[in-house]
Amino acid sequence: MALSGALRPGLLQLRVLDLQAAKTQYIDRIGLQFVGEDGDGRIYLKAYDEFERHCLVPREADEAGCDFMAFRVASAADLDSFEKRVSDYGYGVDHVPAGEQPGVGRRIGFMLPSGHRIELHADIDMAVRHPPATNPDIWDEEPRGMGAIRLDHALLYGPNIDEVQDFFEKALDFRCAEKVALPDGMLATWLTCGTKAHDIAFVRHTEPGKFHHASFYLEDWSAVGHAADLIARYNISLDIGPTRHGITRGTTIYFFDPSGNRNEVFSGGYTYYPTDPTRIWNEQELGKGIFYYEKAMNERFLTVVT
Ligand SMILES: [Fe+2]
């Protein structure tokens, strides 16, 4: 097997102000499946094409934002190896016992100098309602709402992103697929642990620990158009789109959940191989890189974070 180590984004725990409103957004509109709740203010959701028990964990809180993002690694041995490498890099590692989230094995966690908590885990139960594995139909139950296929990536805002990129490359074997290089340094980096154009991305920002968006993958460009129809029909707060990124090439639409957390649904994007060079955007073409059709960024996209 070529893929080992960190495999993909596995868990995203988001703070929301109202769980019922979050259920409407993430289940009825984005189309995630309800897996369960554990009575401590967290609900567990999954996308229809994921085998893992859950991926998104909205947690009721007084302030919106992101508690942590967790990557699933290929084996317990990889988890042990990463624990040593993260420690050797100089970051303190803590342990979250198996079962802290139902069905999830032991996790390790650490803080990035951008102010974000990242976790790793090897084990999570297979979902009860998982994609068919024998003579598999394209889906078991017709997708609902926007028809989110999987939790794809997150974009985080914070300081020290040069060190964050170095850490992901050296300690976790991620690679930088694209970056924005300005005269005063790197503005943004898109990091991948597999063959997607990105699994996590960071934008330079003075305030640490900020959350820009959680992104869910859709089937194609027409599904992005259908998402736009739902956003209009149900008066969901729109940020921008449908449009396309130059960076990663995804076709996309951005909107907000009722707590103010930004969501993205997107399709497309290229296949990344570890032999590819890092694609670099400069100041002159940055607008086209972020929004390929508009060739300019909107102020809200740059400044509104939770
Ligand atoms: Fe994104």
Describe this structure in words.
The chain has six helices and 17 strands. The chain is an alpha/beta fold. The strands form three sheets. Strands 14-15-16-13-9-12-11-10-17 form a nine-stranded mixed beta sheet. It is globular. The chain binds fe (ii) ion. Fe (ii) ion is lined by residues 153, 155, 213, 215, 264. Fe (ii) ion binds at residues 153, 155, 213, 215, 264.
Total number of beta strands: 17
List ligands, each type once: fe (ii) ion
What is the alpha-carbon Rg in Å? 18 Å
- Unreliable stretches (pLDDT < 50, length at least 5) are none
Q: Fraction of residues in helices?
A: 10-25%
Average pLDDT score: 96
- Major sheet size, sense and barrel closure: 9 strands, mixed
Report the principal-axis shape: globular
Which structural class fits the helix and strand makeup?
A: alpha/beta
Describe the structure in brief.
This protein has 306 residues and is α/β, with parallel strands linked by helices.
Topology at a glance:
Elements: E1 6-16, H1 19-29, E2 33-37, E3 43-46, E4 56-60, E5 65-73, H2 76-89, E6 94-96, E7 107-111, E8 117-121, E9 150-158, H3 161-172, E10 175-182, E11 185-192, E12 200-204, E13 210-217, H4 221-233, E14 238-244, E15 250-256, E16 262-268, E17 279-281, H5 286-290, H6 299-303
Parallel strand pairs: 1-4, 5-8, 9-12, 10-17, 13-16
Antiparallel strand pairs: 1-5, 2-3, 6-7, 7-8, 9-13, 10-11, 11-12, 14-15, 15-16
Bound molecules: fe (ii) ion.
